[in-house]
Amino acid sequence: MDELEEMVKASVKAGLKVFEPTGGIDMENVHGIVKTCLQNGSETVIPHLYTSLVDKQTGKTEVEKIQKLMEMNWDKLEV
């Protein structure tokens, strides 16, 4: 998270209001990643979960994970 914080701070300093973190993001850490980005000045965060939402056996998107993402409490991130 330290590297993420520094990247967000540098982006904000350069005038970028949107941050799109990628790589290694999954259901367990997405909330913390979004929170870290917002706490360090990003106004909009677009996390890319990519294959962490795909069943490795079938190659299909796991609908249950999408539902869980939608149910997460995004409105009350402590910023």
Structure description:
The longest helix has 12 residues, at 2-13. A two-stranded parallel sheet has the order 1-2. The chain has helices at 2-13, 30-39, 63-71; strands at 18-19, 44-45. The chain is built from three helices and two strands; from the N terminus they run H-E-H-E-H. It is 39% helix and 5% strand. With 79 residues, the protein is mainly α.
Task: Categorize the overall geometry.
Answer: elongated
Order of helices and strands: HEHEH
Note the beta-strand portion.
5-15%
Please count the beta strands (DSSP E, at least 2 residues each). Answer: 2
- Report the oligomer: single chain
Helix content: 25-40%
Structural class: mainly alpha
Terminal Cα span: 15 Å
Major beta-sheet overview? 2 strands, parallel
Based on CA atoms alone, the radius of gyration comes out at 14 Å
Could you give the order of strands across the largest sheet? 1-2
Q: Average pLDDT across residues?
A: 93
Question: What is the count of helical runs?
Answer: 3
Low confidence ranges: none
Concise summary:
This protein is mainly alpha-helical and 79 residues long. It has helices spanning 2-13, 30-39, 63-71; strands at residues 18-19, 44-45.
List the helices and strands and how they pair.
Elements (H helix, E strand, L loop, with lengths): L1 H12 L4 E2 L10 H10 L4 E2 L17 H9 L8
Parallel strand pairs: 1-2
